[in-house]
Amino acid sequence: MEICFHPFMFLDDIEMARYIVRRLIRAAITLLVFQTILFLLIHALPWDAVDLIRVPSAYKPGLRRALGLDLPLWEQYSIWMRSFFTGDLGKSFQLGRTPVMSLFEARAPRTLLLFLPGAFMGFGLGLWLGKYIAWLRKGWLELSASVTGVIFYTAFAPWLAFVIVAVFALGLKWMPPENIINPNIWAGTTVLTETIAWYLLSTVAIGFLIALVVWRVTQRKAMRHLFRLGGFSLIVALTAYLWLVSGLALFALDMLHHLVLPLVTLILLTFGETMLLMRATMIDVLADDHVLTARAKGLSSHQVMERHVARLAIFPVFARFIVQLPLVIVGSFVIEKAFFWQGMGELLFRAVDTYDVPVVMGILSVVGALILVFHVMLDIIAAWLDPRLRVSFSLSSPQKS
Amino acid sequence: MSTEKTPRAGYRAAQNFQFFLSHSSLAVLGLSIIVLFALMALAHPILMATVWDRVTYHPLVGFDYEGIPHPNLPSWKHLLGTDALGRDVLSQLMFATRTSFGLGLVAATIATTLATLIGMISAHYGGAIDTLLMGMSDAFVLMPPPIVLLVIGLLVDMNWLAMGLVFGIFAGLGSPAIIAKSYGQSIKVKPYIEAARIAGGSNWYIIRVHYLPNMISFILVNFMFIVTQSVLIEALLSFFGRTQMRMSWGTMVWFMQYTFRISPFRDQWHAIIPPALAIMLFCGAFYMVGRALDEVVNPRLRKR
């Protein structure tokens, strides 16, 4: 039978395609229920938004009419749903009545610039450390690693941020203690921080994809280390050249300079749990029979670890990581607040301060939608790796640790 | 021919507990820290009634008139010194322990009860009830409890009890319920459920007698993790001044942040470090016990 290789090969399997469709339908229903709960949440409270605004009470009926709060409940509900699904999150009460969506367009890239690298680097670091700790099996190493993991997992985030600022920013003066850019460098330009943030994110994503391709292509080559080294340095050189040519390199470097400390804090907060879990799962897999077979075949210790143990151990850890993502998002919000990194988290705290209900509700909706996207991705990857899940009824399963 | 006596459940539990203590140094460490905190919480009212006079040592309104100017460094009179308002730090710390314990226990009890009930009912009945409950859980997963607490705290003044209640509801209806359901499903296919049904057991009887004891591993582990999360998050919200808590570890660190500009770090390290350390130790202890319990109740994770 002839097999045609293409990137969307997994769609050829009819079970898989049906699974994806079913999962997407369920996601849409979930989103609907989620929005309904949010709507009920603010209407269950004894106040409405107008009571929170400090205006003379004579203006209040007029304000209610303007905001549509005097309409019957079902009508408000239909407006709420319609505007959410058409991407209209209303206008901010403060901040010059800006549409919430355009506030998010400015803030979201900055948050993503902190959150995505932080989450994935924390996950990667945890995997790597957990793998080696489980593989080496030294008593003192395991105990100290476990204690370190627990300490960083339960560390009080603002406190950790404070210590890091005190040491690296105020003591050693390597990095700026807070803020997102140095205004002196940006004076007189029309370049926006969010543009730079988008460019940086896409650079990292594209570079990572190309590096992955290089890795796959050279997998069975004789001198693969040489090829890979050459390929990777070429990618780095090309990226650096493109940035220099565009003339934005200075701004990007300034932003990265400010990014280092928040990023390190987020990574430290994230890696602990992944490390502990990876260690436990690795030890579990190590006892399986196929590991003994692999050793008996005469494979090198490194090959056994990478291909026969770690590859099996990663999936439950990954699933757990996706389930824990809401906490990582909250962590990044707190870090934004602590470092005055003006992203979504900082916006949320400010909106809560100023009783800016549309912005708060908008952030809740966006965070919820983001989590939903991650869960759907997890389910599809899980079904892709494990064909049994495609037929059976599977939930966005937080896998048992 | 003598009949072998089968080990009873109590014996097995004792054996497990022994394994739990002997094989996991983390569990011993965690348990001893929890006991230490419990003693601290219990000792505070006793100390207040006997040794400490209310004027000097009251955690909220106390003031040491002899120690002006404040903050004072640790001394025999104030083992952890005083803060910028002249209050005894140790007394505050012990008083706040009670709040944290209360909050953690309330949140964890509510979350675990809700999650277990939903998981069992959803797994046992299946069909429309299952779809309904799981659809709801799927939606609750999308609402991180900290952000919801922040939003509700904006509109309603919450004390620790209300906070534990809200956290418990939002945390329990989310992913723990889904995990509980997967546990329930693995119990549902066991032959004894079938047998109980044939013998005429009612639904409620089966859930109570056959599901619940088998869910105990989930209940214990989940309980520990929810305590960790709720205390951490209360501390975070208090730190940013978003709760109406009168005294908790988070409030203490929050207050320190204000006085930090007034006097230098070396004059008030004794007031800044203990609450942050207490949060870390308390949450870490519950987390470690949870992990160790996880290894006991899931024998697959045991060291080999």
Question: What does this molecule look like?
Answer:
The complex is a heterodimer of chains A (401) and B (304). Chain A is built from 16 helices and no strands. Chain A is an all-alpha fold. Chain A has a domain at 22-84. Chain A is globular. Chain B has 13 helices and no strands. Chain B is 73% helix and 0% strand. In chain B, helix 4 packs across helix 11, helix 11 runs parallel beside helix 12 (249-259) and helix 11 runs antiparallel to helix 13. Chain B is mostly helical. Chain B starts with 8 loop residues before the first helix and ends in a 7-residue tail after the last helix. The interface between A and B is large, with 57 and 53 residues.
- Indicate the overall shape of chain B: elongated
Overall mean pLDDT of chain B stands at 82
Q: Count of helices of chain A?
A: 16
The total count of strands of chain A amounts to 0
What oligomeric state is this? heterodimer
Q: Strand-and-helix sequence of chain A, N→C?
A: HHHHHHHHHHHHHHHH
Radius of gyration of chain A: 25 Å
Give me the count of strands of chain B: 0
Helix percentage of chain A: over 70%
Structural class of chain A: mainly alpha
The assigned structural class of chain B equals mainly alpha
Number of helices of chain B: 13
